[in-house]
Amino acid sequence: MSSRVEQLQNALWKNQPLATSDPNTGPSVLLRPDDPIWRAAKTGGLSSLLTSEEISAYSEVEMIAAKIEIAYERLVVMHADRVAFEHEFPATNFGPDLSYASSSDLRQYVHLLTHAQTAAAYVDRMVTGMAGAEAIILRSSFDVREMRASEQSRQSAK
């Protein structure tokens, strides 16, 4: 996506011809992790059987998952907005023919792509954080501070 944004910016500000875009399949499907222990304890009213550390740890993962779902839903809407915009132009084998696009159209397209790119990066960071939290729980450690530290170190490693 960043190369397409760069192509559009060059077309806008440097009057370079706009190359055809690569096919884009859109957002991939995200699966929410399912922990049967936490789900059963929560829905069955058995969370009192878990330690406070376990409850905090599972709640942390659940909070991250909720953030991912919200961000992902926004990303899907952004993808739909971009596709709708592209369908306003004649189609080629590689996407819309933006040679008919005005400067204003290209600016709108850059806007759509950069917002989607930012949203995708956020989802990626949150998924990385989720992986760190899950890894700690799988080690039977329920220290939320350790989870958050792991999330931060995984995100800074990217």
Plain-language structure description:
- Helix 3 runs antiparallel to helix 4.
- The mean pLDDT is 78.
- This protein has one domain.
- It has a two-stranded antiparallel ribbon with strand order 1-2.
- It has 5 helices and 2 strands, in the order H-H-H-E-E-H-H.
- The two termini are 17 Å apart.
- 66% of the residues lie in helices and 3% in strands.
- It has helices at 2-13, 36-43, 52-86, 103-138, 144-157, and strands spanning 91-92, 95-96.
- The protein is mainly alpha-helical.
- A hairpin with a 2-residue loop joins strand 1 and strand 2.
- The longest helix is centred in the C-terminal third of the chain and has 36 residues, at 103-138.
Give a topology summary.
Blueprint: H1 2-13, H2 36-43, H3 52-86, E1 91-92, E2 95-96, H4 103-138, H5 144-157
Antiparallel strand pairs: 1-2
Helix pairs in contact: 1-4, 3-4, 4-5
The total count of helices amounts to 5
| Radius of gyration over C-alpha positions, nearest whole angstrom | 21 Å
Number of domains: 1
Q: Can you tell me the overall shape?
A: elongated
Query: How can the largest sheet be summarized?
Result: 2 strands, antiparallel
| Average pLDDT figure | 78
Q: Return the string of H and E elements.
A: HHHEEHH
Secondary structure tally: strands = 2
Question: What is the beta-strand fraction?
Answer: under 5%
Which residue ranges are poorly predicted, with pLDDT under 50 across at least 5 consecutive positions?
Answer: none
Tell me the strand order in the biggest sheet.
1-2
- Roughly how much helix do the residues carry, as a percent range? 55-70%
Q: Which secondary-structure class do the elements indicate?
A: mainly alpha
* First-residue to last-residue Cα separation: 17 Å
